[in-house]
Design a protein that fits this description.
With 143 residues, this protein is an alpha+beta fold. It has one domain (2-142): Alpha-D-Glucose-1,6-Bisphosphate, Chain A, domain 4. It has three helices and seven strands. Strands 1-7-6-5-4-3-2 form a seven-stranded antiparallel β-sheet. Strand 3 (44-48) and strand 4 form a beta hairpin. Helix 1 packs across helix 2. The radius of gyration is 14 Å and the shape is globular.
Length: 143
């Protein structure tokens, strides 16, 4: 199995970062086109990425202001059963984000594309929290 890992600082409070990575309204700003769900342990999420890409997940880790993880329960085969998560810490007055997407079945083309896409999405997360920038869903991989 293959994993995707990114580690980076954000100049924003722990609470603001946690809200952006764990709530449907936060996810819609930097990752999903539209989402809904319950931001709590064992909550369920619907993750919309456009026609044919309406996926589902459940909250497998929920520690307020510390950690959040979604286990993907309905998606394309490469993402099915994988885990998208965040661990947060404060160092030098910044929130440090450890992002992971674990459980890829193989290092195929979709895995390699997703490595790139995650870096782009996480940059949008950081830029929004630090500078208030927003990017329309359709342009997120072009900025």
């Amino acid at each position: 199995m293959s994993d995707i890992i990114h580690y980076f600082p954000i100049k924003a409070s722990l609470q603001k970062v946690f809200e952006m990575i764990s709530t449907p309204s936060g996810l819609d700003i930097w990752w999903t086109k539209s989402s809904s769900g319950e931001c709590k342990e064992n909550g369920h999420y619907e993750l919309g990425f456009g026609p044919g890409y309406d996926w589902k997940a459940h909250v497998s880790v929920f520690i307020p202001s510390k950690a959040f993880e979604l286990e993907i329960t309905d998606s394309d085969p490469d993402w099915l059963g994988s885990r998208v998560g965040f661990r947060l810490d404060v160092k030098n007055e910044m929130t440090w984000v450890e992002f992971y997407h674990n459980g890829w079945p193989e290092s195929n083309e979709h895995y390699r594309i997703s490595c790139y896409c995650w870096a782009m999405y996480l940059r949008i997360l950081k830029r929004n929290l630090e500078h208030g920038e927003t990017v329309a869903y359709e342009k997120r991989l072009d900025v």
